[in-house]
Design goal:
single chain, 340 residues, alpha+beta, SH3 type barrels, seven-stranded antiparallel beta sheet, 7 strands
Length: 340
């Protein structure tokens, strides 16, 4: 499978291997990524490392995909505005010929190949209606062909679960039951507590009702705000009531499985991060780890039957039937902040 027909994430990463490294470095150098800047760690830390180490290839292949997408959006903003202006009324759903003509026109007016690669990859990564046309342009135009993405090993701090034999489980269960019986027997054999004789020390007088009660102030934890792209903020309500809810939705695959060409999506748990009247912006949950995924800490509390990993990449789910959503549960504020 070629890079241009691969998953959206592969195309987004490969774009940085095609774009001139100096262009990428100038873009990242223009960002304020100091400690006080309002940038989430999953985005800010990889970008700061890129500013310091100047290794675009390492960033493209190993940085969290949310950081890679954020930098790609910065590179794509200007050429995207030009494409939209050229397409005019056809900007929402252009045909392939219209998209190809628009690319030719912005190149004729001064846009570079780097600009075109950035905007096409960004459209694929954001699942725009024109994404299939952008993939086709990558495939058909030699000057836009994306390089192969080098392999890299994803590191994870989560050790694989150890297999425990049924015999060991039964032994552990028997020890726990024995411990419970021992504690119960010990508590029943204790002598009764001595009672005070009548005429002993007088009982303490009851405190007056006027004595003030000390109330410990409660600290209310605030839910951390995510860093959204300008397009996401314009398209979704980031304070929608469904934000923080875990649902089961039909999530489309990034790429077609050649062994199962008719299967294009799968029901899987997702975390809602924003919503509109017709669409949801979600982070899917998976049973396997990947460079763009981290352990979903509340998986056990929410009743999932295996350890799950949450995707950094946000996915748009369209044509949602809000009256028939399958809800698993809702994250607490602490759980939300740990995953954001």
């Amino acid at each position: 499978m070629s890079e241009s027909s691969g998953s959206a994430n592969i195309i987004v990463r490969s774009a940085f291997l095609k774009i001139d490294p100096d262009v990428t470095l100038r873009a990242v150098d223009s960002l304020d990524l100091r400690a006080h800047a309002k940038v989430s760690a999953v985005v800010g830390v990889p970008l700061r490392q890129l500013q310091q180490r100047r290794d675009v290839t390492a960033f493209a292949t190993s940085a969290p995909i949310v950081a890679v997408r954020s930098l790609l959006e910065l590179l794509a903003l200007e050429p995207l505005e030009k494409i939209i202006e050229v397409l005019g009324d056809h900007a929402e759903t252009p045909t392939f010929d219209q998209m190809a003509a628009a690319v030719d026109e912005i190149v004729a007016s001064g846009s570079t190949t780097d600009d075109v690669v950035a905007v096409l990859a960004f459209a694929v990564g954001e699942s725009f209606a024109a994404a299939p046309h952008c993939r086709r342009l990558f495939e058909e135009r030699e000057e836009l062909a994306l390089p192969e993405l080098p392999e890299f090993v994803a590191l994870t701090v989560l050790a694989p679960a150890r297999e425990v034999s049924p015999e060991i489980r039964e032994q552990r269960k028997a020890r726990r039951e024995e411990e419970k019986r021992r504690k119960k027997s010990s508590s029943q054999s204790r002598p009764p507590r001595p009672t005070k004789m009548k005429g002993g020390s007088p009982a303490r007088p009851e405190q007056s009702a006027t004595v003030p009660t000390v109330v410990t102030p409660q600290v209310t934890e605030e839910r951390r705000r995510l860093l959204f792209t300008p397009l996401e903020q314009a398209r979704f309500d980031v304070n929608h009531p469904l934000v923080g809810v875990v649902l089961v939705l039909d999530v489309p695959f990034d790429a077609q499985d050649p062994d199962l060409p008719d299967v294009t999506s799968k029901d899987r748990p997702v975390l809602v991060v924003a919503a509109s009247s017709q669409e949801l912006l979600v982070r899917p949950l998976y049973s396997n780890t990947a460079p763009s995924r981290t352990v979903f800490q509340p998986w056990r509390r929410l009743g999932l039957d295996h350890v799950s990993y949450i995707e950094d990449t946000r996915v748009v789910i369209s044509d949602v039937h809000f009256d028939a959503l399958r809800q698993i549960g809702q994250l607490t504020t602490s759980e939300w902040n740990a995953q954001s």
